[in-house]
Write a structure and sequence with these properties.
The complex is a heterodimer. Chain A contains 13 helices and 26 strands. By secondary structure, chain A is of the alpha+beta class. By secondary structure, chain B is an alpha+beta fold.
Chain lengths: ~425, ~170
Amino acid sequence: MRNGHADDIAKLIEPGRVDRRVYTDPDLFELEMERIFGRAWLFVGHTSQVPNPGDYITSELGRQPVIMTRHSDGSVHVLLNRCTHRGAKVVNERSGHAQRLVCCYHGWAYDTDGRLATVPVAEGCGAGFDKDALGLARAPRVGEYRGFVFASLADKGPSFEDHIGPMKGNIDDLVDRAPDGTLALDAGMHRYVYNGNWKLQVENVLDSYHVPFGHASTVNQQGVQFARREGDQKGAAVIETEKKQTAASWKDRKSFNAGNGHGWTSNTTLDDGKRSSPVFDEYKRVLAEKVGAERAAEILTPRLHNSLIYPNMSIMGLNIHVRVIKPVAVDRTEVNIYPIRLSGAPEDMNFANIRLLNVTHSAASFVQTDDLESFVRAQKGLQSHLTDWVDISRGLGAEEPDTATNATRGLATHEMVVRAQYKAWLGYMHEAA
Amino acid sequence: MALATRRLAVAAGIDRGPFEDFLIDEARLLDERRFRDWMALFAEDGTYWVPSVADQKSPFDQASLFYDDYDLMKTRIDRLEHPRIHVQTPPSRTAHIVGNVVIEHVDDGKGESRVGSTFMMVEYRDDMQRLFAGRQRHHLRRHGETFRIVQKRVDLINCDAAFEAMAVPI
């Protein structure tokens, strides 16, 4: 698969199945890094992570180390974290504040917009030394929507608007819950890794089929999951225990394919009409004060469970968070999950959301750990070469247009969204840049 | 300075023995997977906290690896005993070692004390062995002849690392 001929790659994807090599072939992984993570719009960070001039965070886009900075003029920059002199990683902290970004090796110093400011012993540089041409490399294209910063490492390709357009409503759904209309990703993060391919996590985000079995350990003898959110009277009904099968209300949930690999799943089976507690009621009151009771009720009636902004980010509407997927190797992936503070919400409400995320998505959580086990076992099982195909055919042919959202709709326990991800995957992969 | 503090504690007539015995017993309950007995060591207002950043000030405004009150601890243990907890199939085996015990503070009036110690926990599961290490601090309340835990705080030296799934308490 080293050469990545379009015909060879196209043979890996059939309407209801994919070849196991998409998860296991190191050469295909290299092509993915070039053709998907080297081109697609990728989520980098949120402007709240760099509120003041001189603030920075570091991250990885695929395997590329990057710095997101706030420059003295207020502009946000996405820079490659690699000294243009001898190649050392310039910034070694995950976040911080600096007037200049200074390489540890020979002391080349960059302004927070990436320009090379000073080099030690400048008189030793040759006559052709062009300081202006030696600024930190930058992501050729950067886009922002409601504080969410995305970058593409390619100078050509679909516009940011084309990419994010269908998912703006999903971002709005989250941001609108903040009484002040802004979010802050300033409450730390959960980091986990697993010995498995990155797509196992991406596919899982919109997979409602796995919940009753994969997360059986979180479901009590009445078939109800532990209560999750502040003010919930009980958890989601997941299993009908008498029939020992997935609850009808769970099976009725929908998933949506919005194109470009993006998609979302509709709300869970929680009874939001009964959601109430002193902390939640106070939040509701504050929100209503800002946006009016009618709009507040609309905002607090959840429409979405998980939303995937392909290929590297998801937003969860239930136990709210932003998730970033970072491929490390064909069989190794890191995931970062950021709790969200809703600006203007009572601190107790934010604290409740942060605490809930420990329970559901920390590396030691009740929910995520069983997913990680499934990813690791999938990677192990996929080594078997006598069965090359992975079945993703649930609901094939049952998709229908959803005119309200301009998306394609299916049942959430179907695999329409996984097929849609492979359609997008093929779109990125089938030709050289 | 730490040495001087301990000498003062000893000089004040505080015997480290009962505290050390308690910490050893606690670690042993975890290693024997007697999670309900382990939980019974906590006061009903007790918490179990594993921060996700060094010197974390609060469990409320920042993500934590674990921050369990009594109810959550119970849910966690119900899950650890569930027959279909995939991440414990097969189960973890652990071995703790606890040492360098320092009685940091004793309030005889309230019957409360703070005890610092260093720990290592080796975990083996499904062909993988890994090592956790750090400092822990127990806030204890006298309870008859023994103690109840008001808070157990575990500061892993790699608290901000990316972890593979962690299923059992440290």
